[in-house]
Amino acid sequence: MTTADRPADIFDRTARRRRRDRAAQGGYPAHAFLRDVMVEGLMERLDAVKRDFADVLDIGTPDTQIAVPHARIARFDPGLRFARAAGGVQGDEDRLPFADACFDAVLSAGLLDQVNDLPGALALIRRTLRPDGLFLGAFLGGGSLPALRAALRVAEGDRPAARLHPQIDVRSAGDLLVRAGFALPVADVETLDVRYADFGRLLDDLRGMAAGNILTQRTMMTRETLSRAAAAFAAAAGPDGRTTERFAIVFVTGWAPDPSQPKPARRGSAVASMAAALKPPA
Hints:
This protein has helices at 13-25, 33-47, 80-85, 118-128, 146-156, 170-179, 199-208, 223-235, 274-278, and strands spanning 55-59, 72-77, 89-90, 103-109, 129-140, 183-196, 243-255. By secondary structure, the protein is of the alpha/beta class. It is globular, with a radius of gyration of 21 Å. The protein has a seven-stranded mixed sheet with strand order 3-2-1-4-5-7-6, with helices on both faces. The chain has nine helices and seven strands; from the N terminus they run ααββαββαβααβααβα.
């Protein structure tokens, strides 16, 4: 595929790097609760795998929170400041600079929903894995930020601007793993509800975790629009004066193919029919 044949970027790569650099300087840990939940979920899934990993790639590394016992860990982040602070490499996930089959595991927390060519990025991740290597990922998925979406609809009426990123639901995430060539793909979702006292606190969290609008076709929000959105957000508050915002975290698991992995049963190889299995006892 030539450069002219490639689809136009959805996300502004330069803005993404700048937002992450700004977050690195702006008290990121105070807004990193989503990544903390993601990392905890990834570690729980990794602990359930009873094997050792010698070489691991951590994609999206504002810190060195992801740690694997006895493993050498390479760090990679779109933001230069985050990458440098973690002793890693700066770049984009759909342009990974690593050789094929050089890692036993790849982990990614909080970034894959901001990748222009996600199918390509997943295929590159699979290629960097050795046979039977493990990929674990977590990102903000479909169903997230319903209160923000509703407030913006009220604020902008019949002419809404592009302000929120496209979201990947759990079923699409599983399909993407299959498309990228992963074996034994699994995708599941966990939700986190956060209560906000006001609209500004939500926006502060999104900026602070580098999750603001980086669409290539984005426009500035006027003060009037911001005021209407804040009012609509406040109108949705409960008796305690707080509005609930939901974050849906999609977790994905996939393995680089290997002959040792379990295979699905050959169609027609069952020794008992479904009808017989469902037949009530005599």
